[in-house]
Automatic annotation (TrEMBL):
InterPro entries: DUF212 (IPR003832)
Keywords: Membrane, Transmembrane, Transmembrane helix
Protein name per Swiss-Prot or TrEMBL: Divergent PAP2 family protein
Species in which this protein is naturally found: Candidatus Kaiserbacteria bacterium RIFCSPHIGHO2_02_FULL_54_22
Record has Transferase as a keyword: no
Source organism superkingdom: Bacteria
């Protein structure tokens, strides 16, 4: 049960950080521009990575480096690689669409429609990993 609690706490903490970060770094305060990107697209820090690393921390703390931990690391690396690939694909499409003479393709980029497909940059993934480990440590040391 601890792993589930820590998993969801890591998501809540990273989403809270993401909302604060988005609010402080953007000029626009419209509801869509605040809620949609801060919750539904990739950004700093990666809640996916935080959730995975916090769960891995709990497995490591209670069971050590066993078969389950190793399997968790492999699955986590595959998922994180997918996040990096998604970000790379999004940036590639944005560059291609902006160079196009087709105004409808450029409009997709300007309206930030491709952000629905965005993954995470390496910095966002690493920061999410640190948040996940910190949440796992704090939760298992002081609360569970």
């Amino acid at each position: 049960m601890e792993i589930i609690i820590v998993f969801f706490v890591a998501i809540v903490v990273t989403q809270f950080i993401k909302v604060i970060w988005f609010y402080l770094s953007k000029d626009e305060r419209k509801p869509r521009s605040f809620l949609w990107p801060s919750f539904w697209i990739g950004g700093f820090p990666s809640s996916h990575t935080a959730a995975l690393t916090s769960a891995l921390y709990v497995i490591w703390k209670y069971d050590g480096m066993n078969l389950l931990f190793g399997f968790g690391v492999i699955v986590s690396l595959l998922l994180i690689y997918g996040l990096l690939e998604d970000k790379k694909r999004q940036v590639l499409f944005e560059e291609y669409f902006m160079q196009s003479n087709d105004s409808s393709l450029q409009k997709i980029v300007v309206e930030e429609r491709l952000l629905s497909f965005s993954g995470h940059s390496l910095f966002e993934i690493i920061s999410g990993g640190f948040v996940g480990i910190a949440v796992g440590f704090v939760m298992t040391t002081f609360f569970l």
